[in-house]
Amino acid sequence: MRFCARIAFILVPMVSYAVLPVVAQGTLDDYKRAEKFLSGNMRHMVFPADVFPTWIEKTDRFWYRQTGPNGSQFILVDAAQNTSAPAFDHEKLAAGLSHAAHREYKATELPFDSFDFVEDGKAIRFEVETTAYTCQLSNYE
Predict the structure, then answer these.
(1) Torsion of CA 68, 39, 78, 86, to 10 degrees
(2) pLDDT of amino acid 52
(3) Alpha-carbon distances of 135 from 29, 111, 139, rounded to whole Å
(4) Domain edges within the chain
(5) For the chain, where are the alpha helices, taking DSSP H only?
(6) Is 72 helix (H, G, I), strand (E, B) or coil?
(7) Sheet holding 54-55, edge to edge
(8) pLDDT at residue 131 in the model
(9) Cα–chain-centroid distance for residue 24?
(10) What DSSP letter does each residue of 10-25 carry, written as one string?
(11) In what order do the strands lie in the sheet with 131-136?
């Protein structure tokens, strides 16, 4: 009889836990909201998420390409002065390049990923497909 009482003492709590409703840590909506904050998904919500500096010769200045929901632009940073600004007038460059290449380009979708400052910073040189361009920053030609 004692044996049956011991088994009942062990089995009754186990069976009662098995029939209790299972309580989840969160609802499906909770998980869907949290999924937005995973690192791969946050990358599309935080701008600029990546900054890959291209240092300008032996100076304290560098540029990087900033990509956001409205396109991209090139930013020039002076680390010594703690300033940042567009590296050039993107609208004027797009217009000048469109004229030279006989093809329409938008300021937010320039067809190159990198460039070099040349002529003591008075011009930039870049390549579009297989053609090299040098743009004078004084008149954007």
Answers:
(1) 0
(2) 87
(3) 52, 14, 8
(4) 2-42, 54-136
(5) 2-19, 28-35, 39-42, 90-101
(6) strand
(7) 54-55, 61-68, 71-78, 83-86
(8) 92
(9) 34
(10) HHHHHHHHHHSPP--S
(11) 116-118, 123-128, 131-136
pLDDT at 138 (0 to 100): 93
Is the pTM here over 0.70, yes or no? Answer: no
Length in residues, the chain: 141
- Residues 6 or more apart in contact with residue 115 via CB below 8 angstroms: 63, 74, 87, 124, 125, 126
The answer to whether 134 and 117 have CB atoms below 8 angstroms apart is no
Q: Which residue has the tokens 């300033």?
A: 83
- Could you tell me the mean pLDDT of each successive run of 10 residues in the chain, 141 residues long? 63 61 73 82 66 89 88 93 95 95 94 93 93 94 89
Q: What token pair was written down for 50?
A: 């990546």
Per-residue pLDDT, 36:
82
Q: Distance (Å, rounded) from C-alpha 21 to C-alpha 113?
A: 57
CB-based burial, 47-85: b 16+ in 10 Å, e otherwise: eeeeeeeeebeeeebbbbbbeeeeebbbbbbeeeeeeee
The pair of three-digit structure tokens given for residue 83, joined into one six-digit string = 């300033």
